[in-house]
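pasting for ref
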Amino acid sequence: MSSKNNKDNEVYILGSDIEENKKKSTTKLKWIIIFCICLIVAIAGIIILLSDKEQAPEYYFEPEISEQQSVTITTSNTESSENQSYTSATTDTINDVPLNIFVTHNAMMSLTVGMPDRSDSTIIFAAMAADIRKDNQEIVGDFVLSGNQITKGVAKKGFCAIINNTISIGVGEDTPLLQQAIENKGFFFRQYPLVLNGELIENRPKNKSIRRALAMRNEQIIMIESQNTESFHDFTQALIDIGVSDAIYLVGGDAYGWYRDKEQTRNEFGKELTEIPQNISYIVWRTQ
Protein backbone atom coordinates (compact mmCIF):
# COMPACT_ATOMS: atom_id res chain seq x y z
CA MET A 1 0.00 0.00 0.00
CA SER A 2 2.78 2.33 0.99
CA SER A 3 4.77 1.48 -2.15
CA LYS A 4 1.82 2.17 -4.42
CA ASN A 5 1.27 5.59 -2.89
CA ASN A 6 4.88 6.47 -3.47
CA LYS A 7 4.61 5.56 -7.14
CA ASP A 8 1.43 7.62 -7.49
CA ASN A 9 3.15 10.60 -5.93
CA GLU A 10 6.12 10.14 -8.23
CA VAL A 11 3.94 10.19 -11.32
CA TYR A 12 2.12 13.27 -10.08
CA ILE A 13 5.33 15.22 -9.59
CA LEU A 14 6.66 14.32 -13.06
CA GLY A 15 3.42 15.41 -14.65
CA SER A 16 3.60 18.81 -12.94
CA ASP A 17 7.12 19.42 -14.26
CA ILE A 18 6.02 18.80 -17.83
CA GLU A 19 3.09 21.18 -17.59
CA GLU A 20 5.29 23.86 -16.02
CA ASN A 21 7.90 23.47 -18.77
CA LYS A 22 5.21 23.81 -21.45
CA LYS A 23 3.98 27.03 -19.87
CA LYS A 24 7.49 28.44 -19.71
CA SER A 25 8.16 27.52 -23.34
CA THR A 26 4.89 29.11 -24.48
CA THR A 27 5.61 32.31 -22.54
CA LYS A 28 9.15 32.48 -23.93
CA LEU A 29 7.88 32.01 -27.48
CA LYS A 30 5.34 34.80 -27.01
CA TRP A 31 8.05 37.21 -25.82
CA ILE A 32 10.27 36.26 -28.75
CA ILE A 33 7.41 36.98 -31.19
CA ILE A 34 6.65 40.32 -29.49
CA PHE A 35 10.35 41.28 -29.61
CA CYS A 36 10.57 40.44 -33.33
CA ILE A 37 7.47 42.51 -34.10
CA CYS A 38 8.83 45.49 -32.15
CA LEU A 39 12.18 45.17 -33.93
CA ILE A 40 10.53 45.14 -37.36
CA VAL A 41 8.40 48.21 -36.48
CA ALA A 42 11.48 50.06 -35.18
CA ILE A 43 13.50 49.31 -38.32
CA ALA A 44 10.61 50.43 -40.55
CA GLY A 45 10.29 53.64 -38.56
CA ILE A 46 13.99 54.41 -38.92
CA ILE A 47 13.85 53.82 -42.69
CA ILE A 48 10.84 56.15 -43.06
CA LEU A 49 12.50 58.82 -40.90
CA LEU A 50 15.71 58.72 -42.90
CA SER A 51 13.88 58.87 -46.22
CA ASP A 52 11.88 61.92 -45.06
CA LYS A 53 15.07 63.75 -44.09
CA GLU A 54 16.80 63.16 -47.40
CA GLN A 55 17.66 66.40 -49.20
CA ALA A 56 15.49 68.54 -46.91
CA PRO A 57 16.14 72.21 -47.68
CA GLU A 58 16.33 74.65 -44.79
CA TYR A 59 14.04 77.37 -46.10
CA TYR A 60 10.35 76.90 -46.86
CA PHE A 61 10.64 73.32 -48.11
CA GLU A 62 7.81 70.82 -48.44
CA PRO A 63 8.00 67.32 -50.01
CA GLU A 64 7.71 66.80 -53.74
CA ILE A 65 4.51 65.74 -55.50
CA SER A 66 3.78 62.86 -57.81
CA GLU A 67 4.68 63.14 -61.49
CA GLN A 68 2.29 65.02 -63.77
CA GLN A 69 1.90 65.48 -67.51
CA SER A 70 4.01 68.22 -69.10
CA VAL A 71 2.39 71.35 -70.52
CA THR A 72 3.62 74.85 -71.29
CA ILE A 73 1.71 78.14 -71.42
CA THR A 74 3.47 81.20 -72.77
CA THR A 75 2.78 84.89 -72.21
CA SER A 76 4.39 88.20 -71.29
CA ASN A 77 3.21 91.35 -69.54
CA THR A 78 4.56 93.78 -72.12
CA GLU A 79 2.51 96.91 -72.83
CA SER A 80 3.17 100.23 -74.50
CA SER A 81 6.51 101.74 -73.48
CA GLU A 82 4.76 105.10 -73.12
CA ASN A 83 2.83 103.87 -70.09
CA GLN A 84 4.05 103.88 -66.50
CA SER A 85 5.61 100.78 -64.93
CA TYR A 86 4.01 99.71 -61.65
CA THR A 87 2.21 96.88 -59.86
CA SER A 88 -1.50 96.98 -59.17
CA ALA A 89 -2.77 95.12 -56.10
CA THR A 90 -6.35 94.02 -55.62
CA THR A 91 -8.12 91.66 -53.25
CA ASP A 92 -10.70 88.94 -53.83
CA THR A 93 -12.36 86.33 -51.65
CA ILE A 94 -13.46 82.99 -53.01
CA ASN A 95 -14.86 80.15 -50.90
CA ASP A 96 -13.81 81.99 -47.72
CA VAL A 97 -10.21 82.23 -48.96
CA PRO A 98 -9.13 85.91 -49.15
CA LEU A 99 -6.46 86.58 -51.78
CA ASN A 100 -4.11 89.38 -52.77
CA ILE A 101 -3.67 89.60 -56.54
CA PHE A 102 -0.69 91.42 -58.06
CA VAL A 103 -0.49 92.47 -61.73
CA THR A 104 2.59 94.14 -63.18
CA HIS A 105 2.32 96.76 -65.92
CA ASN A 106 4.98 97.59 -68.50
CA ALA A 107 7.55 95.35 -66.90
CA MET A 108 9.83 92.44 -67.75
CA MET A 109 10.47 89.48 -65.51
CA SER A 110 13.83 87.89 -64.72
CA LEU A 111 15.53 85.92 -61.94
CA THR A 112 18.25 87.00 -59.57
CA VAL A 113 20.36 85.25 -56.94
CA GLY A 114 20.94 87.21 -53.75
CA MET A 115 18.73 89.84 -52.15
CA PRO A 116 17.62 92.46 -54.70
CA ASP A 117 18.33 96.10 -53.89
CA ARG A 118 15.17 97.47 -52.29
CA SER A 119 16.21 101.02 -53.18
CA ASP A 120 16.28 100.13 -56.89
CA SER A 121 13.32 102.08 -58.26
CA THR A 122 13.32 100.01 -61.48
CA ILE A 123 12.11 96.95 -59.50
CA ILE A 124 8.32 97.04 -59.29
CA PHE A 125 7.81 93.51 -57.90
CA ALA A 126 10.10 91.02 -56.13
CA ALA A 127 9.26 87.66 -54.55
CA MET A 128 11.29 84.61 -53.54
CA ALA A 129 11.36 81.93 -56.23
CA ALA A 130 13.16 78.64 -55.46
CA ASP A 131 13.83 76.74 -52.23
CA ILE A 132 17.25 76.11 -50.68
CA ARG A 133 18.61 72.79 -49.45
CA LYS A 134 19.54 72.40 -45.80
CA ASP A 135 22.65 70.30 -46.24
CA ASN A 136 24.60 72.35 -48.78
CA GLN A 137 22.62 75.62 -49.05
CA GLU A 138 22.18 75.07 -52.80
CA ILE A 139 19.07 75.98 -54.78
CA VAL A 140 16.60 73.09 -55.08
CA GLY A 141 16.14 71.82 -58.63
CA ASP A 142 17.14 73.15 -62.06
CA PHE A 143 18.05 76.83 -61.93
CA VAL A 144 19.35 78.89 -64.85
CA LEU A 145 20.54 82.47 -64.44
CA SER A 146 21.25 84.42 -67.64
CA GLY A 147 22.02 81.17 -69.47
CA ASN A 148 24.22 79.75 -66.72
CA GLN A 149 22.83 76.57 -65.13
CA ILE A 150 23.66 76.93 -61.44
CA THR A 151 21.97 73.78 -60.15
CA LYS A 152 20.42 70.62 -61.61
CA GLY A 153 17.65 68.27 -60.48
CA VAL A 154 13.91 67.67 -60.57
CA ALA A 155 12.91 67.68 -56.91
CA LYS A 156 9.80 69.58 -58.01
CA LYS A 157 8.22 69.10 -61.41
CA GLY A 158 6.71 72.54 -61.89
CA PHE A 159 8.83 75.08 -63.76
CA CYS A 160 9.01 78.61 -65.07
CA ALA A 161 11.15 79.55 -68.07
CA ILE A 162 11.89 83.12 -69.16
CA ILE A 163 13.31 83.25 -72.67
CA ASN A 164 13.52 86.45 -74.75
CA ASN A 165 11.07 88.18 -72.38
CA THR A 166 8.52 85.40 -72.83
CA ILE A 167 7.33 83.57 -69.71
CA SER A 168 6.42 79.89 -69.83
CA ILE A 169 4.77 78.00 -66.96
CA GLY A 170 4.82 74.21 -67.20
CA VAL A 171 4.89 70.82 -65.53
CA GLY A 172 7.19 67.90 -66.28
CA GLU A 173 10.53 66.31 -65.56
CA ASP A 174 11.82 66.90 -69.08
CA THR A 175 11.27 70.08 -71.06
CA PRO A 176 13.16 71.56 -74.04
CA LEU A 177 12.73 74.97 -72.42
CA LEU A 178 15.53 74.19 -69.97
CA GLN A 179 18.08 73.88 -72.77
CA GLN A 180 16.54 76.81 -74.63
CA ALA A 181 16.94 78.98 -71.55
CA ILE A 182 20.63 78.03 -71.42
CA GLU A 183 21.21 78.64 -75.14
CA ASN A 184 19.35 81.98 -75.18
CA LYS A 185 20.82 83.36 -71.94
CA GLY A 186 17.43 83.06 -70.32
CA PHE A 187 16.16 82.02 -66.89
CA PHE A 188 14.63 78.85 -65.46
CA PHE A 189 13.60 77.58 -62.02
CA ARG A 190 11.49 74.80 -60.50
CA GLN A 191 8.72 74.83 -57.91
CA TYR A 192 5.57 72.89 -57.01
CA PRO A 193 2.97 72.78 -59.81
CA LEU A 194 -0.45 73.88 -58.56
CA VAL A 195 -2.79 74.13 -61.55
CA LEU A 196 -2.50 72.36 -64.90
CA ASN A 197 -4.98 73.22 -67.68
CA GLY A 198 -7.51 74.34 -65.09
CA GLU A 199 -7.13 71.14 -63.06
CA LEU A 200 -5.98 71.02 -59.44
CA ILE A 201 -2.69 69.24 -58.73
CA GLU A 202 -2.54 67.73 -55.25
CA ASN A 203 0.58 68.18 -53.16
CA ARG A 204 1.55 65.96 -50.23
CA PRO A 205 2.05 68.60 -47.50
CA LYS A 206 -1.07 68.97 -45.36
CA ASN A 207 0.10 71.88 -43.20
CA LYS A 208 -1.21 75.43 -43.54
CA SER A 209 0.87 78.45 -44.49
CA ILE A 210 0.71 81.75 -46.33
CA ARG A 211 0.71 80.60 -49.96
CA ARG A 212 1.98 82.37 -53.07
CA ALA A 213 1.75 81.50 -56.75
CA LEU A 214 2.93 82.56 -60.17
CA ALA A 215 -0.19 82.08 -62.25
CA MET A 216 -1.78 82.43 -65.67
CA ARG A 217 -5.22 84.02 -65.92
CA ASN A 218 -6.78 85.26 -69.14
CA GLU A 219 -3.44 85.02 -70.97
CA GLN A 220 -1.76 87.22 -68.37
CA ILE A 221 0.86 86.35 -65.75
CA ILE A 222 -0.13 87.39 -62.24
CA MET A 223 1.10 86.77 -58.70
CA ILE A 224 -1.33 85.63 -56.03
CA GLU A 225 -0.93 85.49 -52.25
CA SER A 226 -3.28 84.13 -49.59
CA GLN A 227 -4.06 86.59 -46.82
CA ASN A 228 -4.45 83.77 -44.29
CA THR A 229 -2.67 80.47 -43.76
CA GLU A 230 -4.16 77.92 -46.14
CA SER A 231 -3.59 74.30 -47.10
CA PHE A 232 -2.17 73.57 -50.54
CA HIS A 233 -5.52 72.11 -51.59
CA ASP A 234 -7.68 75.06 -50.51
CA PHE A 235 -5.30 77.63 -51.96
CA THR A 236 -5.06 75.82 -55.29
CA GLN A 237 -8.83 75.40 -55.49
CA ALA A 238 -9.21 79.14 -54.89
CA LEU A 239 -6.84 79.82 -57.78
CA ILE A 240 -8.99 77.72 -60.08
CA ASP A 241 -12.17 79.39 -58.84
CA ILE A 242 -10.87 82.87 -59.76
CA GLY A 243 -10.06 81.71 -63.28
CA VAL A 244 -6.42 80.60 -63.12
CA SER A 245 -5.61 78.10 -65.87
CA ASP A 246 -2.02 77.23 -64.87
CA ALA A 247 0.11 78.01 -61.85
CA ILE A 248 3.26 77.05 -59.98
CA TYR A 249 4.17 77.80 -56.39
CA LEU A 250 6.36 80.61 -55.10
CA VAL A 251 8.04 80.51 -51.70
CA GLY A 252 5.33 81.11 -49.11
CA GLY A 253 5.25 81.61 -45.37
CA ASP A 254 7.19 84.63 -44.13
CA ALA A 255 9.24 84.91 -47.32
CA TYR A 256 10.07 88.58 -47.83
CA GLY A 257 9.13 90.60 -50.91
CA TRP A 258 7.75 93.93 -52.09
CA TYR A 259 6.08 95.80 -54.94
CA ARG A 260 5.76 99.42 -56.11
CA ASP A 261 2.29 100.79 -56.73
CA LYS A 262 1.27 103.46 -59.22
CA GLU A 263 2.48 106.18 -56.86
CA GLN A 264 5.85 104.35 -56.72
CA THR A 265 5.39 103.62 -53.03
CA ARG A 266 7.16 100.44 -51.95
CA ASN A 267 4.80 97.99 -50.23
CA GLU A 268 6.33 95.01 -48.40
CA PHE A 269 5.06 91.54 -47.51
CA GLY A 270 6.53 88.74 -45.42
CA LYS A 271 9.43 89.24 -43.02
CA GLU A 272 13.09 89.98 -43.63
CA LEU A 273 15.52 87.19 -42.74
CA THR A 274 18.09 88.05 -40.10
CA GLU A 275 20.63 85.95 -42.02
CA ILE A 276 20.21 85.97 -45.78
CA PRO A 277 21.41 82.78 -47.54
CA GLN A 278 23.92 83.38 -50.30
CA ASN A 279 21.80 81.44 -52.81
CA ILE A 280 18.46 83.03 -52.06
CA SER A 281 16.63 83.58 -55.37
CA TYR A 282 13.96 86.05 -56.48
CA ILE A 283 11.68 86.66 -59.40
CA VAL A 284 12.07 90.35 -60.25
CA TRP A 285 9.86 92.47 -62.47
CA ARG A 286 11.63 95.60 -63.75
CA THR A 287 10.57 98.63 -65.73
CA GLN A 288 11.10 98.28 -69.47
